[in-house]
Specification:
The complex is a heterodimer of chains A (576) and B (187). Chain A is α/β, with parallel strands linked by helices. Chain A has three domains: 3-184, 3-Layer(aba) Sandwich (Cytidine Deaminase, domain 2); 191-280, no CATH class; 289-498 and 548-561, no CATH class. Chain A has helices at 43-57, 75-87, 129-134, 141-144, 156-166, 195-222, 230-238, 240-256, 264-292, 296-323, 333-370, 376-390, 392-420, 438-488, 491-499, 532-539, 552-561, and strands at 3-9, 18-25, 30-38, 61-70, 93-99, 106-110, 121-127, 136-137, 183-184, 422-425, 430-433, 504-512, 521-529, 546-548, 568-570. The longest helix of chain B is centred in the N-terminal third of the chain and has 22 residues, at 31-52. The two termini of chain B are 21 Å apart. Chain B folds into two domains: 2-29 and 77-186, no CATH class; 31-75. Chain B is elongated, with a radius of gyration of 21 Å. The chains are: A alpha/beta (576), B alpha+beta (187). The interface between A and B is medium-sized, with 26 and 24 residues.
Amino acid sequence: MVVLKVFFPSCCSSAESGLLVGHWIPEQNSAVILAVVHFPFIPVQVKQYLSEVRQVTQVNVSVLGTWSNCKKKEESLSEFLEDLGTIFSHEPWIQLCKETDSKFWSCSIIQKHPSTPKEDEIILVYYDQRKVMLSHLHPPGNLTNSTDHKAEDASKLAILFDTVAKSKVLFMKDRYDDGPIKLTHWQSEGVEASIIVELMKQASIPVCMLLTFLLSFVSSVCKSRVLKFWPLCFIWSKLSTCEQLGHRLEHLQVISSNRKAQNQPQLMRKANIFVSLLADVALGILLMSWLYRKNRIGHLADTLIPVADHVAKELQDLLQWLMGVPAGLKMNRALDQVLGRFFLYHIHLWISYIHLMSPFIEMILWYVGLSACLGLTVALSILSDIIALLTFHIYCFYVYGARLYCLKIYGLSSLWRLFRGKKWNVLRQRVDSCSYDLDQLFIGTLLFTILLFLLPTTALYYLVFTLLRLLVVVVQGLIHLLVDLIDSLPLYSILLRLCRSYRLAAGVKFRVLEQKTGKPLRLLMQINPLSYGSVVQTYRLPTYSCYPKDSWGSLCKKLFLGELIYPWKHKGEKQD
Amino acid sequence: MEEREDCIALQCRQYSASCREFSVRCQPVQLRSLSAATCSVWLAAYWLFVLTQNSMVLSAAIFITLIGLIVYLHFVKIDQESLLVIASLGIQMTSSYASGKENTTFIEMSRVKDVVINEAIYMQKVIYYLCILLRDPLDPQSVSEVVPLFQQRPRTMESELPFPKGGCFRARVQAHCWVSVMKTAVL
């Protein structure tokens, strides 16, 4: 049994009698009705208009049948409608008939050369034309990758959505026009437009041109040779603020380009970037107004120096503890004193520099706080950079401790091999046996013993400063994660899903309407919106995201061996 | 065609020659279990209040009860699951939750390869569940996905053949009849 499906727009249910105009899909045995042409019309003009529409939209629009909406079934009207079938020949010819006070329609198919002797069953599917036209179908994940699927594999729904979306030209004329053709479709109730949107569209062109000019000026300044000298470019690469600013500059360039978006993903991306930038700047200005009210930034600057002092004092106490008897462990007194005094002097230098800068801190902070108006992400990046600068001495201590420990471990492993009579063969990259002289063995064993007994002291210093460094890294990592989140969240798509959920369709859903035996099956097709999780996943903005470079295993191995760790890797960085 | 079980009810409606709907209705939320859960949470909160003399515990308990109830009704408790089979269009699965939320998935007929009863080992039993095999668009012979139908958990495990988080059947024979009915409707 062959099933014939007729997709009928619900806006045409109350249209007056006329011709059905639409697209017939023979592979799926379904007819998509796009509009109804009313009496009176001249067949030749209708045919000419439809051929014009076909040329413009590339959709095979033709007259599919007749539609009659009258109080009682009239014999003359039905004969007239059948005669029309001979003028506009279409195989099969659909005749839809509705009585004004009845819910159930009757539908009959006339086929000149019926392919099957059995009766076809007819299914009537109502769809909301405006929503189907505006929505974008997101097929399930495994189908999006195949770009060259054959016609019979192509999704039926995608063809339906495509047909309606491409026939926009057909919806330009409606029945209140003075032309020879009077159509009914979703725009017959009136064309929607908004003055604000039109004004913004007109104003956007000069604004875009101005923005492009400014951005090209800024980017030429950034790329100039002056800023590329060695110390400066090293500093720029280390500061996360510069990366974030560069990222935002790229975004602005994307928005202000004059080229119109070619397809839906590009359009959504532009819109997402624009809304995300707006939200960022709004949050930044909010933060700025909060900071500058009641001179909070002055208070912040005033507390900065005491906090740095407090951190330095805590570190000094820690070093005094390490130089004594830390956790009951007995350290080697001489090495302990040397290391402890070295680090204490370092802290003393650091505190002197901070005190030197203290009169300028408030002014610097005041001007730096102004840059929060560029966005909340910039403010967070500046915060992360300030934390990095303030804890620079912890970083230095970590590097000293790690280098010492690393040297010790390498020395120990090499001398341990000597102890057992083996040697590392650099050429063959393996351990070979080797016969040592007596004095080599004697000195080697002596050095091995010294290094072994000095190991706990160095290891303890290394452990303490590595933990401090990891703490700072974790705090910085959390701030970067937050910046990433704000950067990549597709706010426009989420708002669209909230307010106009039919625009982002994951699929359709059908509802069975009241039935009556003898009449065709009636279904209502509604749009099934995409879930929030898939919206975020599909429309995520790409970022220079930072993610852990090493797995837990390799991180532990590096910590044990004393290699320096840089746990966060940025996408654009070269592998080292 | 209606079948009454201890835990679920199956209903089958035929709208026309090419359209059928199978709906499985689960037991509604019992007042007994709801009051038992609420009472136990509040008793624990009172006991903590007696220990700590902090009234925040009581407000926290009320908050937790309300939030927990809303989450349970909206995300966990499935009231009814239905399968709508429309020949040459596709298969639609709807789950409606106790709070009124409806979750719908529609699979087009061109993606459906077959409807089968699959066996699985769950804890210490072998259970049977109904599932749809989806065709891989790149390779028409292979199966790309297996979609299990009817995800509800039965309230009592008295029947022999529970579904994985699924409804109950009295016997495998009836299950086969059901599948053959679906297959004639679908393919």
